[in-house]
Amino acid sequence: MSMKFSRLFFTFFVSFFSISSVLAQQKNIGSISGNILQANDQALYNATIELCPINDLSKCVILLTDKKGFFEFNKLSPNYYSLKISNIGYTNKKIDSIFLKEDKLDIQLNEIIMINKVGTEDEVIIYAEKPIIENKDGKIIFNVGESAASNSNNLNELLQKTPLVTVDADGKILLKGKEVKILIDDKPVELNSKQLQELLESMPGSFIDKIEVMTNPPPQYANERGGVINIVSKKGKVGFTFRANVFYGTRGEMGTGLATTYKKNKIATQLNVAISSNQFIGNSYYKRQNYYADSSNFLYSNTDYKNKSFRPTLRWNVDYDFNKNNSANFSLSYNANIGNNHSFSEFENINRHLISYKFNDRIISSDINNQTVNISGSYLWKDKERTGALKLIT
Fold first, then answer.
1. Residue range 76-112, pLDDT digits in tens
2. Are 177 and 168 in contact (CB under 8 A)?
3. Among residues 277, 283, 219, which one has the least CA distance to residue 246?
4. Please, which residues have CB within 8 angstroms of residue 19's CB and are 6 or more apart in sequence?
5. Per the count of CB atoms within 10 A, which of 48, 72, 117, 204 is most buried?
């Protein structure tokens, strides 16, 4: 009864959010959002934001930033827009040629830094999208933030859309057919293929900035014959963001994922938590007849099995900027696979008179309890000209 109730609950939960998502897409055609900051990374409160369609200046819309410096324009139709930011004591800033199109209806601008007013001229920026795929500095870069798929796909699905990258039937990530080293924000992820798959599935695509594919790895990873993939996450907007997902499968798989980010002043943190479980139940049987010179007999066999698994995953990442030249990072990850497998087989020998004369039972059970914890920290120093850097990792 409990399992039936769980299945009904998850089915209702997924259906509810699917319907809500469709209604939301119909209601809000498109959106443009961003964060306005001061030079010291503090949020700029009550800054005036004016958004105008370039071909119809009579339809301008004005908003004020909230306490986190955040603004968002909703219900926008595909068009070219210009954005003007103004606040007392700061140089006005204008961003031109923001293109909201059918295949990218949600644009989140990078953090916009306002500078103290020193003259009467406005600062004008021409908005230009990055190409979705770049070949730069010996890397193939998939700019996830420029792709419409980032809003609806998780990180594992985005990797399958990345050039040269494939995922095999066992969930292993391959680069040109070879196993690859996975980094998240330049830090290696030491997980098996199943744990890595569940971690990547818990990370929403909207939290990812870009995916870097390095067929010629840097010196510290020169021994990785398959190459290196570095996943670069967004620092997140000022304040708190939250995203959750739930999944359910017809074979007893179910789980949930939670992703949150928080940014304020000099600190940015990201937390990903996922819990998944499965229960596979099955049975098999066969019948065999043996013929001898003077007799014959039968062997009947019946097998029932049940496999259960519970897999929690957690990743916590913290970035702290002391100033423009010094920053530190801390990362913690936890993964576990807890479960048991049970199989019961029954064998029965029957003689030519169809009378049982021999029985044999076999029980195979195993318990699984694998738990992995990884902790890493790093410190990054850059010189004032940003031409040199020193990075320490532990």
1. 988 899 999 999 889 899 998 888 887 777 888 878 8
2. no
3. 277
4. none
5. 204
Residue type, 2: S
CA 105, CA 61: separation in Å to the nearest integer? 18
Find the mean pLDDT for residues 309-320.
87
Q: How many residues does the chain have?
A: 394
Three-state DSSP at 383 gives coil
Tell me what pLDDT residue 64 has.
Answer: 94
Strand bridging mode 267-291 / 178-179: unpaired
- Give pLDDT, residue 83: 93
Place of tokens 């007849």: 289
The CA distance from 385 to 198, in Å, is: 41
The model's pTM is 0.59
d(CA 212, CA 138): 10
Q: How far apart are CA 221 and CA 181, in angstroms?
A: 8
Q: Which strands sit side by side in the sheet containing 389-393, from one edge to the other?
A: 239-248, 254-264, 267-291, 296-321, 326-351, 356-382, 389-393
As a whole number of angstroms, the distance between CA 239 and CA 265 comes to 10
Tell me the two tokens of residue 279.
Answer: 């229960």
